[in-house]
Amino acid sequence: MQYPRSPPGAVAAVQSSRFARQRAGAARRAQAGSEQPMKALVKIAAEAGLRLEDVPVPAIGRDDVLIRVLRTGVCGTDLHIYEWDGWAQANVPVPLVVGHEFAGEIVEMGSDVRDLAVGDLVSGEGHLVCGRCRNCMAGRRVQCAHVKGVGVNHPGAFAEYIALPAGNVWRHLPGIDLDVAAIFDPFGNAVHSALTFPVHGEDVLITGAGPIGIMAAIVAGHAGARHVVITDVSPYRLELAGKIGVTVAADTRERPLAQIMADLGMPRPAGRRVPDRLGAPRTQHDHDQGHLRPGDVRDLVLDVRADPVWRRHRACHHAPLRRS
User: Fold this and answer.
1) Domain presence at residue 91
2) What does residue 247 show for φ and ψ, rounded to 5 degrees?
3) Which of 9, 250, 261, 279 is 20–30 Å from 126 (CA)?
4) Residue 68 in 3-state DSSP?
5) Would residue 77 show up in a list of annotated catalytic residues for this protein?
6) 77 band by pLDDT with thresholds 50, 70 and 90
């Protein structure tokens, strides 16, 4: 079989365009301060706090892009690192530029980068995989044996510039609010949590009205949930949840789940969906007493119980539950 040849000069034109992008990126980078260090928030020592420091603009490889950071979001992980608690001490090397929620503009691209362009508004996925371990080679990159976390054990986004592999970068639609673009990372967490199982026509309880919990409530409602109930112990957060139109936003210390279920006409708990669990004593008690019994559905747990303002979080996971 014969394949059509490229028109005369087409390959040269593509190469010329690629080299022009590289030269333009290099010029922008030089102007941006490769000789003058950039500003960044750094965990400079093994102690509480962060410092604004001058650090080098990160270099990029042939598969990477350099991004000028325009907006950032503060995650619970950043609070762990700032406070230098036990988790941070065990996982975070110092010194390190922190932060992983961001939006920015591409200013330079490596020679092998395709499908992106200088000037694109982008964000990045914060898990950097090796691509060579057994899991990566088997297509299970989410289980990479050597994964690095942006802003956790790899230089992060609380800086003027960040370098990332092009494969970790996605392009935003033009005109998106930068404040929204910067929080796609936690929004993705909320979408994954809310849609782990079908919620159309179901009753959904989200325990914890933090940013991810509230976004998960929005997603569940958009996906067709019948009732969306969200609980917390913070009046401020419950007020925010009420503004997005959940069915009920309640403090279960004052309004037990059994009462909420009766008010909504849910006489049998079996088969109801429980996508998040805060782990607060009242909610945990209700769960243990059988008011929350997922039956043969899956119970997705987002554990955020670590301190009085429920701001810390651990990894999401899900597991099949047997019918009781």
Assistant:
1) yes
2) -65, -45
3) 279
4) strand
5) yes
6) very high
Query: Which residue is catalytic, options 72, 77, 207, 252?
Result: 77
Q: Is position 80 annotated as part of the catalytic site?
A: yes
Catalytic site residue from 80, 100, 227, 313: 80
Contact 316, 84 (CB under 8 A): no
Residue 301 pLDDT grade (very low, low, confident, very high; cuts 50, 70, 90): very low
Cα–Cα distance for residue pair 102/74, rounded to 1 Å: 9
Q: Both tokens of residue 142?
A: 């989410």
Q: Tell me the percentage of the chain whose pLDDT exceeds 90.
A: 65
pLDDT tens track for 284-300: 555 544 555 443 333 34
The pLDDT tens digits for 240-256 are: 999 999 999 999 999 99
**What is the pLDDT at residue 313?**
31
CA 314 to chain CA mean position, Å = 13
Query: In the block, which residue shows the tokens 């708990």?
Result: 269
- Distance separating alpha carbons of residues 324 and 315, to the nearest angstrom: 26
HSE at residue 320, side-chain half, CA atoms within 13 A, is 3
Cα angle vertex 212, ends 275, 301, to 5°? 30
* CATH assignment at residue 91: 3.90.180.10
Question: Which of 158, 182, 206 corresponds to the end of one domain?
Answer: 182
Q: Quote the tokens at residue 31.
A: 């102007």
